[in-house]
Amino acid sequence: MVQDVQALVFDVFGTVVDWRQGVAREAAPFLARHGAAGANPAGFADSWRRRYSPAMEEVRSGRRPFTRLDVLHRENLEQILPGYGIDPARVPQAELDELNLAWHRLDPWPDSVAGLARLKARYIIAPLSNGNIRLMLDMAKRAGLPWDAILGAEVAQAYKPTPEAYLRTAEVLALRPGQVMLVAAHNGDLAAARRCGLRTAFIPRPTEHGPGQTTDLAPEQDWDVVARDMEDLASALGT
């Protein structure tokens, strides 16, 4: 039962923060400096993000040992640059490193901080993100995300949606899976969590992928809670 839930863990990219606009904002001056001023920065963010899951699949499949997301993001950045007419070998490494930190500087959705503060009054709140610890820490300090702990892939040494990512998070909190609720804007993430015994809450983020988004616009299962946004979730959970 939802009444048994003691901890709320959150998908972060897309659910708590707007990754697309944040990455596009930092990509725009980089592209202009390197002769690609005509490129669409949001499209650049999309291209970078499209390599996110395939890169993690190399780890999930066992073909590669666990590797922090910062490293995967950096490799993916170098892979997409030639498509924009930019030779990564001709860009100073420090400049590539700085652009890679765009993922550390993402803005929260307007309801995120206030909603999390309300939820924190009653529940343990923490990210259950594929982002690494330092990425999550930097993001939280910049955006004011009031986490009680930083959990997720690096702590679990597993990327979602593998079961270990969810089960080890509950174990770290000394809770049964049913005492933990995943909050996410992605039906697939919630389905994987439910299979592991976690409770589930869906919040739609209909512009995560831009104005033409066609996925995750509505709940696809009877999740334990469906809310309009983070503040509505707090109200639904009585905080």
From TrEMBL:
Per its UniProt record, what Pfam families does this chain match? Hydrolase
- EC number from the UniProt entry: 3.8.1.2
Q: Which domain of life is it from?
A: Bacteria
UniProt cross-references to InterPro entries, sorted A to Z: 2-HAD, HAD-like_sf, HAD-SF_hydro_IA, HAD_sf, S-2-haloacid_dehalogenase
Signal peptide, first to last residue: none
Keywords from UniProt, A to Z, are: Hydrolase
Enzyme class, spelled out: hydrolase
Q: Which Gene3D superfamilies match?
A: 1.10.150.750, HAD superfamily/HAD-like
Q: Which GO terms describe its molecular function?
A: (S)-2-haloacid dehalogenase activity
The answer to keyword Hydrolase applying to this record is: yes
NCBIfam families assigned to the protein according to its UniProt record, in alphabetical order: HAD-SF-IA-v2, HAD_type_II
Against PANTHER family, the record matches this protein to: HALOACID DEHALOGENASE, TYPE II (AFU_ORTHOLOGUE AFUA_2G07750)-RELATED, HYDROLASE, HALOACID DELAHOGENASE-RELATED
Name of this protein: Haloacid dehalogenase, type II
Lineage of the source organism? Bacteria, Pseudomonadati, Pseudomonadota, Alphaproteobacteria, Acetobacterales
